[in-house]
Amino acid sequence: MSIDLYHGEPASNSLKVLQAIHEKGISFNSHYINLTKFEQNDADYLKINPAGQVPALVHDGRVLTESTVINEYIDTVFDGPALKPDDPYDQHLMRVWTKYVDEVFRPSLSFLAWHALIPGLAKSLPEGAFEERLARIPLREKREKWALAASGGFTERELDGWRHNLAEVTDRVEAALTGHDWLVADQFSLADIAVFAMAVGMPRGHAHLWNAERTPRAMAWLERMRARPGVAAALAMPNHTRFVPEEA
Ligand SMILES: N[C@@H](CCC(=O)N[C@@H](CS)C(=O)NCC(=O)O)C(=O)O
User: Fold this and answer.
1) Superkingdom of the source (predicted)?
2) Do 189 and 101 share a structural domain?
3) Are residues 218 and 127 part of one domain?
4) Does 67 sit in the ligand 1 pocket, CB within 6 Å?
5) pLDDT digits over 146-176, tens only?
6) 103 and 48 in a common domain
7) Which residues contact 37 (CB under 8 A, 6 or more apart)?
């Protein structure tokens, strides 16, 4: 049996799958893709994932992409502790969380980070180099968003919407943890894994939202998550570029 995981820093979507694989106790070959060097767009990697994104899992020669779907597969196929609640209704609640992370939490974080960072990145590169990098991004939507971010083109209305989303996510997490240790059914699950992958950088990147006074339960949950051996092992994966999670 061969298990190969292609991933970036232990942050964002890569951290999502790294947590699941370590929580299950699966031994795997780690292939680090340096996103700051645009290795996700190298020809060899595009043969694995033509979208030019990490993570990607290759199990016995078959390629799996999309972090949330990869995690469901990992839980279904491999031995180890269950990462889904037993009850189908609780599984539904778990998937509402993972969907919310993919559709709201992660994009809001990303767009705000791109707005803050991409203009500086574009200016720091030699003439034409940013455009050359953009041209190598296979996904048209991604290419256009990065070009827009570089020119400071996101509107105040869009930025406000993403900031509002982050406040809403924070409040939802805090509310879900009232009287509970984990987000769904008092059982650690893929919901905790997905939210944590994006939330781990919140106390640093969005400290006005995530702090001991405003969100004591969310802060305690972050510590509970970090204390899990599988999550700790995922976070301890090499961080070659000192990439900070909230910049994903
Ligand atoms: N929907 C995909 C998104 C993957 C994704 O956006 N990955 C980011 C890193 S967290 C990436 O590869 N970024 C580099 C790029 O898009 O060029 C998933 O959940 O796996």
Assistant:
1) Bacteria
2) yes
3) yes
4) yes
5) 999 999 999 999 999 999 999 999 999 999 9
6) no
7) none
Query: Which residue, by CA, sits nearest to atom 6 of ligand 1?
Result: 53
Domain termination site, one of 45, 77, 109: 77
Which secondary-structure segment (H or E) carries 64?
strand 62-65
| Domain final residue pick, 77, 104, 123 | 77
Question: Do the bridges between strand 3-7 and strand 29-32 make them parallel or antiparallel, or are there none, so unpaired?
Answer: parallel
- Cβ of 66 less than 6 Å from ligand 1: yes
Instruction: Match 């972090």 to its residue by tokens.
Output: 67
Q: pLDDT over 70 for what percent of the chain?
A: 97
Could you list the residue range(s) of the whole structural domain that residue 111 is in? 88-228
pLDDT band at 243 (very low <50, low <70, confident <90, very high): low
CB-ligand 1 contact for 12 (6 Å cutoff)? yes
Nearest to 24 by CA among 72, 79, 64: 79
Reading the block at residue 194, the tokens are 């997905």
CA dist., res. 160 & res. 155, Å (int): 9
